[in-house]
Amino acid sequence: MTVMRHVRDRVRREARRSARRVAPAARTAAQRVREAVPESVRKELYPVVPWRPWRVDVRLEDLLLGVMGPQTASEFAESSHDLLWPSTRLAEGPHVQLLADVDRGELTDAEILAHPYGEMGRTCLRLHGRYFWATDDEGVVDVARDFIRRYRGEVPTRTRAHQSPAGSPLMVAPVRWTSGLHQIVDGHHRAAIEFRRGRRTLPAKVKWLPVTTPLQDLLNQMSWIGGEKELYQPIDAPELREAWVTVRRCTDRLEKMVALLDDLGISAGGRRYLDVACCYGWFPAQMEARGFDARGIERDPLAPRLAEAAYGLSPDRVLVGDAVDLLASQESPHDVVSCFSLLHHFVLGRGSTTAEELLSALDRATGSVLFIDTGQGDEAWFADSLAGWNPAHIEAYLRRHTSFDDIIDLGPDEDAVGPFRDNYGRHLFACVRRDR
Ligand SMILES: C[S@@+](CC[C@H](N)C(=O)[O-])C[C@H]1O[C@@H](n2cnc3c(N)ncnc32)[C@H](O)[C@@H]1O
Asked: Model-level pTM?
């Protein structure tokens, strides 16, 4: 008993210490507890210590996909290369999708295996050697059909291997920095069945400690934002909606770019686009979706993973390194180049070269059009350091230090709102070559 109390106190101490850390707190807590406590004791404590003793009604709409077999949601996301697995609502996940599809018509075995549910089962086979009692494709189909039968009200005759016994509660963990989202620890199938039957809430066994998602962890680690709950480019994920503020809407700049390129007859058709200091890769992803052969350059080594997870951009589309070095290593110019909100860092002496050298490198890397914006002196945080850097000065500066024929002021962004109302409103400039 004394040993148990000692271990429990140690677990709580570890948990509290980890919870105080910035990110990824809950995952770190779990890891530290695992290291601190022998496995046999952990097994004994697991059904009790991490869980609130009472049941909580959780909204099925607010459940996110979670633990898969022996892996935590984050581990599964990592090893299945699906970083957004724990950012996906159960309602939009493979379990609910399968039930919705069989409501529309029966599925053949081949259709089940090709279905996101079948793919998920096969991923588990690959990663864990089993999916519930399945050890091959035939087994995955059997698990799926068992699930469908239970949905249709057929009472299972027995509990199969690695299935929770009938009547087991849904088990969830709160998702950090949200007020109502929960990650599923056990019960994806049960919750999906109840959701499809139209139930809104289920009583659940809830963990004390919140979990973080890999997306939250990555964002917290990105060097640029430095742990602030800010998104420099839009990322649509349920667990970011409450605590994260989108700083730049980006769509305003993109619309201006696309409109000008249309006017100039430079629309897609495999033309090459390069975004310098691309952050999470929103602009390359948007331009790729419009048919451009798009890439980004970004100093932060986490950018390729985030770009892939958030926007489906292939990680090899984001070149990691210093903008000036990577621009110099480009073999031929790109038709369209953009460089947003980087220049002033060089003006302020935070770059690897002078601002003029950065501009020259951008100039050489551009075949037809360079889009550029920069911090301005009329922004509260640059009132002293960038005094005089108004749109007229920036236009003249671009004219003086580049070889473009036309410098066009496309007007300010729309980001000077809410907490940023005294900042932004940066003018977007298009630097255009007539000889294209
Ligand atoms: C203010 S954010 C701008 C992001 C993006 N261009 C936009 O406007 O949406 C600056 C970005 O530039 C990156 N960065 C800063 N200095 C850099 C350098 N020397 N080379 C490459 N990237 C750099 C930062 O990591 C950060 O992602």
From this structure: 0.86
